[in-house]
Amino acid sequence: MKIFSWNINGIRAVIRKGELQKFIAEYDPDILCLQETKAEQGQAEFDLPQYKEYWNSSSTKKGYSGTAIFSKIEPINITNDIPSHLAEEHGLIADKYGHSNDEGRVIAAEFDKYYVVTAYTPNAKDDLTRIPLRQQWDSAMTAYCAELQKSKPVIYCGDMNVAHTEDDLANPKPNKGKKGFTEEERTGFDNWLTAGFVDTFRIFTQGNGHYTWWSHFAKSRERNVGWRIDYFLVSKSLENQIKSAEIHAEQMGSDHCPISISI
What are the residue ranges of helices labelled H in the chain? Predict the structure, then answer.
């Protein structure tokens, strides 16, 4: 089974460019998880009859954030957003930018033997004003997947808006302490590993030079000056079933590229 994740930075734009159609034709994923769709179901004109579609769009800001799961296998159940009891327990509240749990950022799909959860993690902002929110989000999201994991294994994927280690961005030293590479955000990632999840890409590939997002400035993508901020994390019980974990940097259409696992 092939599962892909891609922050497409606007599904309508990617379709207009023909890149989503090209991607589906080339890779034919069994399950495709999308982040930053910036649309509601029905607003994007494309035809993928082989897939069941599940969307979670922002209820407060149109054309902002949003996630979707396209699956050839029909899930048993779909749950949108972080459950309210966990959001409250971990202090996830609205800040001056809004409430992150109203922005269509999370979808959990339950299948027979596992959950697939995709999320678009809020970023900390250039001035780091959303670091408190990030800590609440990371705590609630990790707890959510750990709770799901008690009943069956979890495959978690998406744009986590953090480079975990110095190998996960091209220029770690000048970016230390900045958005996406603060101690608070990196600790939030560490807590996933403590909760029993595995970074699938690092099962197969070590070292730097492997990135999933590039700035639009200074030909960053051409020079591969990027960040690895998109991940597949799986419950440790699934680790031996992961056959590959890849970054598909050749796929254009967004400032992020798709990532995948074969399981």
Answer: 11-16, 19-27, 84-89, 131-149, 172-175, 183-194, 201-204
> Residue 35: how many CB atoms within 10 A of its CB?
30
Helix H or strand E encompassing 67:
strand 67-71
Is 120 designated active site? yes
pTM score over 0.85: yes
**From 115, 120, 156, 211, the catalytic residue:** 120
Q: What is the pLDDT of residues 71-97, one digit of tens each?
A: 999 999 999 999 999 999 999 988 888
The C-alpha atoms of residue 43 and residue 66 are separated, in whole angstroms, by: 13
- Is 168 in the active site? no
Whether residue 65 contacts residue 120, with contact meaning beta carbons closer than 8 Å, is answered with yes
Quote the tokens at residue 231: 């991940």
The confidence score (pLDDT) of residue 93 equals: 87
Q: Which single residue is written with the structure tokens 């269509």?
A: 104
Among the listed residues 159, 168, 199, 230, the single catalytic one is 159
Please count the CA atoms within 13 angstroms of the CA of 197 that sit on its side-chain side: 29
Set out the domains of the chain in order of their start, with CATH numbers. Answer: 2-262 (3.60.10.10)
